[in-house]
């Protein structure tokens, strides 16, 4: 049995999902030869540390009751620098302007030769190649399946499961909020604003949905895929981005009457990285409904391979983090 | 660089596909630290052996011109027993009555501690647990992604990419011939016999299509999935099987008018393994057209994950064999 000491830096919905999944999968991990101990958890204000392993149930209960994980006044970066552990699960909020605290956390982890598993898109959309290089030089593992598509395992599918293939191009729906809004606009023949409001009421869209509806979230994910799957050296500024805010019910009706959906499609093709609304035939594997995500890979010897799954959700995103942890440490 | 000596036993369309793929991916394999040398190839009548590695282009050309791979009068099993090598790529025709020569070939390989990668469903549909046990006891690797879904990587997706998940159930379309026939019956409002004839003309259905249209092929694949993904101890006789021969254009029309397709669905759910035609809503991810295969996994923490790909084709099936080879030998 390999003992792996980990921190969870960031303890919002996904961070709590990770704690819940680690709790429920303890025996499963042990059966794979992994004794995973969470030695530190930090939220935006507080932290809790126990080098022998935290009682995750107690921490989750405290977060629920008090809104904070603990009483220690120490930041995530400081934990990475001072608490002895092997793995940083970096789940602070995405910031695509400067990478936010996540970027510093990742750098601090790599400087100490620690492994990083993350769902934080910002640092990867800005500094993918630098981070990969740092991880390589320090002998760290760096995995980020959870940054793209939630539970949909597109990165590991392309780079491991489809080993032997050259991936020629990729297109997909990488933002469930936009997909939900477009589907509902078509179903109800309703205007954009009305369906954004509905999505907000249901918790599918955020109070300020600009990050999703303007295609920015999709663009960040495409940058990660362009680098991780296609070996490009891309950053956010290389993406051509159009969102869904100008789609009308009339356009959707016209598409529908001709056998098409309108979907916000992200694609990587040659050197082009593009996000824009596109007509998709209703019988195409990309024409998935609701908040689902989907990605279709064109490969040289396997032909087209399409994968569909839930693109969001705290437990679903935590599942991607767990699969990355297992792939690093399994015997 | 690791030198791996392999035989290819069976040299029909898929066997030749494997040779072509190994030829075209030589540099790719070298970059992964694998020097893959094919030291023996056997078809049903002849064989060719070169312990230093065969010239695959020459063998492929000879097979095309003369219909046979070589002049040596030695069978596949004898090659496995007498030629020194590490890996047997077993691609003889599927026989679900007694496992055919494939079963003996796999046993012979495991007795010598050799690894086996195969697309041959027969031995696995009949003797999965025995073969797994033999492989385990002899320290052999045993991989069979190519037995189910051609290029669609369902086994490795479930067991590796989705590590951490418990797979709760699976349903899918695992036979492209049936899917083609049903799609075309619906499109043309045409009877079963007519569309079987069309599929035969196009090389999508065999001269005797019973194995596909009666659901036998799907049932064999389900047995393999039930064992490999769900840890069952199932054989072909545990499957409840109904084929597509009694589906009428009227039934398809009625389904279509209510927003459904009729698909031959295979499912593993609890202890039930079942193949039968089912109504599938047209907007369900399982409603794929043409000869595509699709599988939808219900998981405990990732939710539903659906994968779609080409279920047949010599290069596509060879791609699954290549990915298995890489997963065994990559550094």
Q: Notable features of this structure?
A:
2 domains; alpha/beta; 13 helices; homodimer; 6-stranded mixed sheet; Dihydrodipicolinate Reductase, domain 2; Rossmann fold; 331 residues
Q: What does this 3D model show about the protein?
A:
2 copies of one chain form a homodimer. Chain A is globular, with a radius of gyration of 20 Å. The first copy, chain A, folds into 2 domains: 2-151 and 314-329, Rossmann fold; 158-309, 2-Layer Sandwich (Dihydrodipicolinate Reductase, domain 2). In chain A, helix 1 packs across helix 13, helix 5 runs parallel beside helix 6 (121-137) and helix 6 packs parallel to helix 11. In chain A, a hairpin with a 4-residue loop joins strand 2 and strand 3. The first copy, chain A, contains 13 helices and 12 strands. In chain A, the strands form 2 sheets. In chain A, strands 3-2-1-4-5-6 form a 6-stranded mixed beta sheet, with helices on both faces. In chain A, strands 8-10-9-7-11-12 form a 6-stranded mixed beta sheet. With 331 residues, chain A is of the alpha/beta class. The longest helix of chain A is centred in the middle third of the chain and has 17 residues, at 121-137. The first copy, chain A, has helices at 13-24, 26-31, 56-66, 76-82, 100-111, 121-137, 154-161, 176-188, 192-201, 210-213, 216-228, 249-257, 314-329; strands at residues 2-9, 34-42, 47-49, 87-90, 115-118, 142-143, 167-173, 240-241, 260-269, 272-281, 292-299, 304-310. The mean pLDDT of chain A is 96. At the A-B interface, helix 7, strand 12 and helix 13 of A face helix 7, strand 12 and helix 13 of B. Strand 12 (304-310) of chain A pairs antiparallel with strand 12 (304-310) of chain B, so a sheet runs across the interface.
């Amino acid at each position: 049995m390999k003992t792996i000491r980990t921190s969870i830096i960031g303890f919002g919905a996904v961070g709590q999902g990770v704690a819940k999944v680690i709790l429920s999968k303890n025996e499963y991990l042990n059966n794979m030869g992994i004794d995973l101990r969470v030695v530190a958890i930090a939220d935006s204000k507080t932290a809790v540390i126990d080098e022998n392993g935290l009682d995750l149930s107690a921490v989750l209960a405290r977060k629920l009751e008090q809104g904070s994980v603990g009483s220690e006044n120490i930041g995530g970066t400081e934990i990475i620098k001072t608490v002895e552990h092997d793995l940083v699960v970096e789940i602070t909020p995405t910031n695509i302007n400067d990478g936010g605290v996540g970027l510093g956390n990742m750098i601090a982890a790599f400087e100490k030769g620690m492994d990083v598993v993350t769902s934080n898109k910002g640092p990867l959309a800005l500094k993918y190649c630098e981070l990969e290089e740092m991880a390589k030089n320090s002998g760290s593992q760096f995995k980020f399946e959870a940054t793209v598509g939630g539970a949909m395992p597109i990165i590991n599918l392309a780079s491991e499961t489809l080993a032997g293939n050259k991936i020629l191009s990729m297109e997909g729906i990488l933002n469930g909020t936009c997909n939900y809004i477009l589907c509902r606009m078509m179903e109800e023949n309703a205007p954009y604003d009305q369906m954004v409001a509905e999505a907000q009421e249901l918790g599918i869209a955020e109070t300020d949905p600009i990050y999703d509806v303007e295609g920015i979230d999709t663009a960040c994910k495409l940058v990660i895929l362009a680098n991780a799957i296609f070996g490009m050296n891309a950053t956010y500024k290389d993406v051509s981005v159009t969102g869904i805010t100008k789609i009308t019910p009339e356009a959707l009706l016209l598409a529908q009457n001709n056998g098409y959906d309108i979907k916000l499609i992200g694609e990587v093709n040659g050197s082009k990285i593009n996000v824009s609304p596109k007509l998709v035939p209703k019988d195409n594997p990309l024409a998935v409904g609701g908040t689902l995500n989907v990605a279709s890979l064109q490969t040289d010897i396997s032909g087209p391979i399409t994968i569909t799954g839930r693109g969001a959700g705290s437990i679903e995103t935590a599942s991607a983090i767990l699969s990355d942890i297992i792939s690093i440490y399994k015997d």
